[in-house]
Amino acid sequence: MICDESVVRTEILNGFGIVTIDNPPVNAGSTAVRQGLLACLAEASKMDLQGVIIIGAGRSFMAGSDIKEFGAPLVPPELPQVIEAIEDCPHPVCAAIHGAALGGGFELALGCDLRVAAPNAVLGLPEVTLGMVPGAGGTQRLPRLVGVADAIDLVCSGRHVPAPEALDLGMVDALSASSEAEDLIAAAQDAIRAASGKRRLRYLPVPAVDPEACKAAERTALRRGKGRPNVVEAVALVKLSAELPADHALLIERAAFQTFRFEEEAFALRHLFFAERAAMRVDGLQAKPAEITQVGLVGGGTMGQGICRAMLAAGLRVTLVERDSRARDKAAHAIVKALDDGVAKGRISVDVAEQRKALFTPSADLADLAECDLVLEAVFEDMAVKKELFGALDAILKPGAILATNTSYLYIDEMAAVTSRAENVVGLHFFSPADIMKLLEVVRTKDTSADTLATALNLAKKLGKQPVVARVAEGFIGNRIYAAYRRHAEFLIEEGATPQDVDTAATEFGFAMGPFAVGDMSGLDIAWNMRKRQAATRDPATRYVEIPDRLCEAGRFGRKTNGGWYDYDTGEAHPSDAVAAIIDEARAAKGITRHVFSVEDIQDRLLGAILNEAALVLEEGVAQRSGDIDVTLVHGYGFPRWTGGPIWWASGQPMKRIKAMMAAVSTAAGPKAPSGSVQDMLAPLRAERKEIDRRKSGDA
Ligand code: COA
Ligand code: NAD
Fold first, then answer.
1. 523 Rama sector, left if φ>0, alpha if ψ -120 to 50, beta otherwise
2. Ligand 2 in contact with 308 (CB < 6 A)?
């Protein structure tokens, strides 16, 4: 050992200096790592070596700079200084990459003369997804390897590129035979021996620019990046690589990075990064997750098919049971067709499609599920149907097998009660389309065991989903908060706003779609049927807007009937005179004088409704923490990600505005409507923001 800093060490192997970064769990590039790298490189530079190899211990090369450090002034040395030390090292330096080389980790590799990757490596520059731009040469060195157009795509999408594609693109020079450290080091030694000395990327020319390809990449990047300022800047920085000497452009890039990392959006996105990871955990959970390989699905409709596609893609064996042979064949045909379409569109290879088909067994007999580790039902949203099914499955399934439900609203404890395995019952609430939407609410009943919960969370990870743990309640976390939001959107209509006023205010805030456009897309009849069922038990003192019922009575069920809150006769949504007349009539019947709302009034009411319900959800313990609610709304309901979610957003608003929002919500909903303590909910985040401001100013 020639150098042993706490998290970086250097050993000599066959005349090569092996610099190992060892900062578990993912070798994030913290201050200690940067200091260690600098010390070990200085030491290696003085020695007589054939070359230096930088490698990561554990599961990755380096998963980026330490995100926790981005919110405060950085302690030297900063990453560009470490990279300069690599460039100044007299020996060729090779990055030997396994696992993640992301953000600052990939920039460190780009600072090396050579890069070899293990088959399990993923490389990329995800800084834009954290509201920033790369700050240690990513926008200048990457185009020198892959060209400006591909660099715009990589920098602005932030996507994680798998090793074989990285080799094709030129991001790495070679792949190792396996992901074992010995093979990786051998490949790095071979690369150094074959190279003719140093190869500093900053001095390489940028490949000839193809203006059409660049324009296309820029258009796509800006569209996908929803015009966020850091994405616009990232495009400009990459283009600069072909216009200015790297020494100059690197300084401009660093200055942009320093600005963006302190912007509100970057703090919000860092909040979400850590909230997403916290949401996967249940505090104090001591459990042993079971291995799930064989899954049963009951119900092959919209949700069953989407869930089946997601499970097959994750390599799980799936038996899908429908009511009868006709329904079974229809669902099976749809699953196979989706795989064939994936091949036709170039999304998956023929081999992958065939592998997935081989994992899939359609059936019309519940007895075929006897050997499953987990069975998930996605049949009609009807308690009697689900209870009968759970009873039947309980008798068939092997002991310990998990029984899960995809119900959107129903009380799962009631379903669990008809089984002899209440501890193995859990809600797995997927969102539509289930193979695309990332959110998965994992719903625990009063009896769900710790092992069952841990198994469900593990399954979510295997499926690539973002789990959030909820307790049983009408609509759990997401649908319950969304229902309050939609209710207040309807109050606004009754009081004087038009559907397009409300939808425009929502999309101007950053929602993917407004509540009425969403309603028309998913169909208004399902909620209507539910309201009719609830009519007898509804509290007459609760404010109720009849307008959606009038629309349904007029046959306006949404897009599928060419009319809902909007008309669709031209194919596009446009305001409807018939709807305006229905609204005027309903308003007149209640003697309501039409009020004119500003965009901000509408936004405040909608956001206030979300905050009030979020506070209730937290107080009742339906959600564990406010970050889980932010994650739910962002991943399942189109809430703008760059705000950090509704609660993080609200914690940055003046208290006066929040109080006025809550007063407006309370007045609209009426005195009997429950009010949550929004101020209590926001208090910890307000304290966190104070701490952020203190650290930002360097006041450690
Ligand atoms: N800085 C600080 N902490 C980081 C980190 C980073 N760059 N990357 C990961 N971590 C932490 C996570 O917060 C998590 O901590 P926890 O166990 O206390 O919750 C732990 O490392 C493991 O990360 P996790 O995401 O749960 O592991 P994974 O195997 O699912 O994914 C990665 C691994 C590397 C793909 C993923 O962590 C990732 O994308 N990291 C961020 C990469 C990035 O954006 N870097 C750019 C920064 S410039
Ligand atoms: P769907 O009507 O499209 O599909 C239900 C399927 O279940 C039908 O194909 C039907 O033949 C089958 N089925 C009914 N009873 C059965 C039984 N006893 N055995 C086998 N198959 C049976 O409904 P969907 O939209 O897929 O919803 C299914 C469940 O998922 C519901 O509980 C719903 O609340 C929930 N959910 C739906 C959505 C959504 O957006 N559609 C989102 C999340 C959750």
1. left
2. no
- Rounded CA-CA distance 344/680 in Å is 53
**Which ligand sits nearest to residue 126's alpha carbon?**
1
Q: Is 2.40.128.10 the CATH classification of the domain at 479-540+591-688?
A: no
Query: Beta strand 174-175 with 114-117: parallel, antiparallel or unpaired?
Result: parallel
Instruction: Identify the burial level of 532 via C-beta atoms within 10 angstroms of its C-beta, where 0-12 means exposed, 13-18 middle and 19 or more buried.
Output: exposed
pLDDT of residue 671: 86
| Residues 59-109 pLDDT 10s | 999 999 999 999 999 999 999 999 999 999 999 999 999 999 999 999 999
* CA dist., res. 196 & res. 194, Å (int): 7
d(CA 501, CA 518): 14
Who's near 249: CB < 8 A, 6+ residues apart? 139, 140, 237, 240, 241, 243
| Ligand 2: centre distance to CA 77 (Å) | 57
Q: Dump pLDDT digits (tens) for 210-230.
A: 999 999 999 999 999 998 999
Beta bridge partners of 18: 11, 53
CATH numeric code, 3-262: 3.90.226.10
Mean pLDDT, residues 653-675: 95
Tell me which amino acid residue 589 is: A
Q: pTM for the whole thing?
A: 0.95
Strand partners for 415? none
Could you tell me the two tokens for 274? 């850590």
Q: Is the CB of 619 under 6 A from ligand 2?
A: no
Is residue 158 a contact partner of residue 125, using CB atoms and an 8 Å limit?
yes
Q: Quick one: pLDDT at residue 176? A: 98
Query: What confidence tier does 302 reach under pLDDT thresholds 50, 70, 90?
Result: very high
Q: Which residue from 298, 302, 335, 409 has its CB within 8 A of the most atoms of ligand 2, so it is best to mutate?
A: 302
379 lines ligand 2 (CB under 6 A): yes
Would you list the DSSP string of 4-71?
E-SSEEEEEETTEEEEEE--TTTT-B-HHHHHHHHHHHHHHHTS--SEEEEEESTT-SB-SB-GGGTT
Question: Which class for 452: exposed (0-12), middle (13-18), buried (19 or more C-beta within 10 A)?
Answer: buried
The answer to whether residues 55 and 118 touch, using CB atoms and an 8 Å cutoff, is no
> What is the pLDDT, as a whole number, of residue 700?
54
Q: How would residue 699 be classed by pLDDT, with cut points 50, 70 and 90?
A: low
Domain boundaries, the chain: 3-262, 294-472, 479-540+591-688
> How far is ligand 1, taken at its centre, from the CA of residue 52, in Å?
27
- Ligand 1 atom with the smallest distance to the CA of 273 is 13
The CATH architecture one would assign to domain 294-472 is 3-Layer(aba) Sandwich (3.40)
Q: What is the pLDDT of residue 681?
A: 98
Q: In angstroms, rounded to a whole number, what is the distance separating the alpha carbons of residues 252 and 32?
A: 26
Give me the count of residues in the chain.
700
Q: How many CB atoms lie within 10 A of CB 2?
A: 14
pLDDT of residue 167: 98
Q: CB 686: neighbour CB atoms within 10 A?
A: 15
Burial class from Cβ neighbours inside 10 Å (0-12, 13-18, 19+) for residue 43 reads middle
